[in-house]
């Protein structure tokens, strides 16, 4: 309306001013004056409407915040009800200066006009009410009229809720930050372009870089991931995660190398960060440093498939490689050889020198075996002293023979083990694919059978498998099974062979010998000794024989005071403390004098026993038990041993006895042995006397104790008792 009346007034004013052109002077003077008065009244009305418009601004009572209307100098012109309540302690808000109502902390007015210019120059300034000290936010908004402002509205907002919300948000942010920083896993956040926006301290430690150095760079530049084995790069995983829209995991054996060259094994996953409206904000990667666990897993896997002593593949890994080799050989139609290797007399080396030296020997043998094969071949340790060699892609048996000869030439020989030099050799058995078997089990079984054949035939170092060995292996297994059954059934019985004094023809000693009563047959040790030793059954057989013999001795020794019973002991039995204590206890239990017991030890075992366990001989000597050296002169024992240790007798082996063709030379050899015995004041006994010529020759050389089938074969307990009554001298019987 104001605009319309203003327009009319302007038009009338123009008309009056141009009265000459419109011929208004021809009008009545009264009319002309009235027209001018109307024009002036309209203009005055428009002006007054404008002024009253400026002065009639009313603050709404329903405003949500306290409001003050200020004039240009900062004096309150008007206040709404909320403002009056806010400044309730002030008598009348209108007319008060803004400076009297509020104050700004740590702020000085920048001009003489007071706080108004300061408030206009700040965004959401905080102030304090002077009436009660409440903290508020004062917002000043200028009001413009005709292009210039002449009034201001000051709006007050209570900052308590905002402060509480801000503090809660700050606390939540700190908690979230502390939580993420406390996670033991690495955390990396990226935007939708794969640019890193956040990393936690674990990631900083792995990358050896600070957050400031990482944020803003692309993920692939900071985390160069790759496959540990193939070295294939693993790139663009943030982009892949966003493209697929769900959590994705990295492949196994993922690794990274940081800028310092340090490599870490990691396992991780990428997840998209999704807003409430479903839009993608980026990705988050959570990863673990699994370097130690992966190394441990590799170590455990290596231990599961390799021998801990030599580092060679074990039976499990050999079986796996053998299966794969069989498949490949079948596919490409070629042959390969499986060689089963066993260290000869390793048990003796282990028992004599100790397990430490045995382990050193095995490591040296493993090293020599490995050095003689190609990279495509395999050497595995499958047992205590057993090795298996897999020779791939062979041409024929001639080639295999050449390879084995080369290997055995290197392995067989002298070994220096911590200043101890020993000689070791191996036996080998060979099976060829597919002639000797088409699967791993058959090949190993047949190579093992060939190896045992090589051990039995001592003239050769290795044997190729043939079908006949299967029959021998089955027979051997049956014999071992029969031996175990015989032990359980007490089928081993002692036989006794008299040792005669050639001068008096009287019995001086009885040697206890083992026999196997198998039905109506009586088997000699040569029929079962080898199988019993391989099956480690000789100790049980010996215990059974000695237990029966001691019961018989109780009667004989009580009747014949000077009768001596001789027992054979192996090195394994002598070094078994439990067995020896049990034997001594049995002697005492049967009330037999220790001086009537003699233990025969082979010369080769005496050497090992003196070097490894000399106290055993000393303990036996202290009990009063006699000690005899069996097969004297065969084991090349140092004669100083006979001086250092007390022995009661030596037994001359059958190989030294004279025959009709070599009477003179053999007599000279026996004379030397007999002379040594006489010098040491010990007895000498000739074993294996079979002819009258040998008896006569022994008498001439001075050896009077004779043992052999020419005089008495081994006899049972029933047969020995009457012979003792007849051929024991009257002087040696106990007085009744």
Task: Tell me what the structure shows.
By secondary structure, the chain is an alpha+beta fold. The chain has 28 helices and 29 strands. An 8-stranded mixed barrel has the order 21-22-24-25-26-27-28-29, surrounded by 5 helices. Strands 7, 8, 9, 10, 11, 12 and 13 form a 7-stranded antiparallel beta sheet that branches. Strand 26, helix 25 and strand 27 form a beta-alpha-beta unit. Helix 17 (440-456) crosses helix 18 and helix 23 packs across helix 24 (614-623). The protein is elongated and about 195 Å long. Residues 729-736 have low confidence and may be disordered.
State the strand order across the main sheet. 21-22-24-25-26-27-28-29
Mean pLDDT: 82
Distance between the termini: 166 Å
- Give the helix proportion (percent range): 40-55%
Q: Total number of β-strand segments? A: 29
Rounded to the nearest angstrom, the radius of gyration is 58 Å
* Share in β-strands: 15-25%
Low-confidence stretches: 729-736
Structural class: alpha+beta
Morphology:
elongated
Number of helices: 28
Largest sheet: 8 strands, mixed, barrel
Organism: Pseudoalteromonas peptidolytica F12-50-A1
Keywords: Membrane, Transmembrane, Transmembrane helix
Pfam family, one: EAL
Transmembrane segments: 29-47
